[in-house]
Structures are given as structure tokens and as C-alpha cells.
From TrEMBL:
GO terms for molecular function: helicase activity. InterPro entries: PDDEXK-like_dom_sf, PDDEXK_AddAB-type. Residues 24-268 form the PD-(D/E)XK endonuclease-like domain. This is PD-(D/E)XK nuclease superfamily protein.
Length: 285
């Protein structure tokens, strides 16, 4: 793999797998390209990388809960008590992005309660197949790379579990439409060599689970869309490297995403389009 291809943000991998070469992608990179090509360029291509904004409380909370859940399911089932779950929140806690001490105390306590509810809930005794599993696998013309929150075993079939901690409670349509979950399902099927069609979004604050059972057609649609995004972003990056104009190749796409965009301080169009919310504004109510 050449240093130049690494700098493009997706690698053409032609040594570990048979020809034709595969585009190495992560679902996050594809989603960034889809939401705003300028943001894609700033995050993955521009060097030196532009300065990023400060911490967001909802991001901090999400990271804490993910770490605590991973540690919880690492424990033997008999040790997954509410007290142990709450202690794991404390062990992984961070104050970054919160408004003040009162808000920190409120959300820390909420996170303790969420984890305690998971420990005593229907999943509490499950033995996942994998936690925070890094998967790297060919999917069509792509080499999909990413980290899956949890992979469950249900009657010999793998199930992708993704944790959510934000304001919105996801519905089944969101699970169906998630490109990341579909790509992870296809990659996991390859890596674990067992069927993987079901994807689930677990909303930790409410305990709600949104789910979708993919079939060949829905997975093919996700794969083809991802392949088109990878091809388009690779073509734009190649033209940029050849001297093309960055603004035309990576156009601005303003929208709600500008509010929390990590590179908005370098993007006048995004700042003009959307006001920046307070760092704690997207916490679950
Ligand atoms: S602020 Fe908006 S328009 Fe600017 S890079 Fe970010 S997402 Fe794109």
C-alpha cells in the first residue's frame, strides 16, 4: 500500500486479497462523504489537519456508556449486578463538554441507572459473541473496516448490536436504513462464517430496541450505494491530488449537520448556515 493512497483516506488494498483491488472504507468515512464532501476533505485529506472544535457532552456521555457496557459484558453474568454496572460508569466517567457540576452529577447518575437497567434487563445474562469487535472484510469491491459494539449469537446466527445514547429513540426504519449496520452485517458474516442478517439499535436511556432483518436485496442495495460513494470519493481525491480545485471537487453541503461539525470553525459557509448549539444541547432530555 502506498503512502499516497493512505493519504487519500481510503486505501487501495491489492496485496492481501485477490485482484481487483479493494477500496478500504469505514462506514464513518462513507457517511461523512455523503453528508458533506467538504467535511470529508478536511477530515481525511487536508494536511495538516484543520483544528477541531471542543468536546460535546453527548459525545462524552456516549463514549462513557460504550466503555462501561463493554466492561459490563466482559464480566461473568453472575457479576453483572446493578452496583457493578454503576461502578463501571464511575470508572470510565469524563466531565468533558458538560455545562457545570450539577449537569455532570445529573447525567452521571442517569448513566449509572441506564447501566443498572441493562444489567438486570433481558440482555443481562447474555454471552455476546464479541464486544467492540474490529471487523475487516471484503464486501463487494470494498474492504470494510470498523468496530462493532456487540455481536450476539441467536440460534447460530450473528446479530449486530449498536448502542445509542442520544435524544432520539431509533425506530425500525432507522435500523433498516443504517448503511453502517448493513456493512457490518456483511463483513461479520464473512469474518465469523455464519449468517448475519439481523441488525439492532439499542437505545440505552430507554431500553428500546429497533431492529431489522435484512435480506439479499436490502444488503445488495446498501453495498451498491456504498460502492458508488467509495468510487465517487476516490475519484474526487485522485483529481485533487492531480491538481484539481478543492471547492469544486468537494462542494459544501450545508444542513443540520453543520451545527456539530467538528471542522465548522474552518468553514464560513457552515457557520453562516447553522448556529452552533451549546456543547450540552444534544444530551438525551
Ligand atoms: S460546517 Fe457544514 S458545510 Fe462546513 S464542512 Fe461542516 S458539514 Fe460541511
Amino acid at each position: 500500500m502506498s503512502a499516497g493512497s493512505e493519504q487519500l483516506g481510503f486505501d487501495l488494498l491489492d496485496d492481501a486479497f485477490a485482484a481487483p483491488a479493494l477500496h478500504r472504507v469505514t462506514p464513518a468515512r462513507l457517511a461523512t462523504w455523503d453528508s458533506c464532501p467538504r467535511r470529508f476533505r478536511m477530515l481525511y485529506l487536508d494536511r495538516p489537519a484543520p483544528a477541531r472544535g471542543g468536546a460535546w457532552a453527548h459525545t462524552t456521555l456516549g463514549a462513557v456508556v460504550h466503555l462501561a457496557l463493554r466492561a459490563l459484558f466482559d464480566l461473568p453474568p453472575r457479576s453483572r449486578t446493578p452496583a457493578a454496572a454503576a461502578a463501571l460508569v464511575d470508572r470510565n466517567w469524563s466531565d468533558e463538554g458538560f455545562r457545570d457540576a450539577a449537569q455532570i452529577a445529573e447525567y452521571r447518575e442517569r448513566a449509572r441507572e441506564w447501566l443498572a437497567a441493562v444489567a438486570t434487563g433481558p440482555d443481562g445474562d447474555d454471552e455476546p459473541l464479541a464486544l467492540e469487535r474490529r471487523v475487516v472484510a471484503p464486501v463487494g469491491s470494498l474492504l470494510v473496516e470498523g468496530r462493532v459494539d456487540r455481536i450476539d449469537d441467536r440460534d447460530g446466527r450473528a446479530v449486530i448490536v449498536d448502542y445509542k445514547t442520544g435524544r432520539g429513540v431509533p425506530d425500525d426504519g432507522r435500523a433498516r436504513d443504517s448503511q453502517a449496520l448493513a456493512l457490518y452485517a456483511m463483513a461479520t458474516e464473512h469474518v465469523l462464517r455464519r449468517p448475519c442478517r439481523r441488525v439492532e439499535l439499542h437505545h440505552v436511556p430507554t431500553g428500546e430496541v429497533a431492529a431489522w432483518e435484512h435480506d439479499d436485496a436490502s444488503l445488495r442495495a446498501h453495498r451498491e450505494r456504498a460502492e458508488a460513494q467509495a468510487a465517487d470519493s476516490a475519484a474526487a481525491a485522485a483529481q485533487l491530488e492531480a491538481g484539481g480545485g478543492p471547492e469544486a471537487l468537494f462542494p459544501v453541503r450545508t444542513g443540520p449537520q453543520c451545527g456539530t461539525c467538528t471542522v465548522r470553525r474552518n468553514c464560513p459557509a457552515g457557520r453562516a448556515a447553522v448556529e452552533e448549539p451549546q456543547p450540552w444541547a444534544l444530551l438525551a432530555p
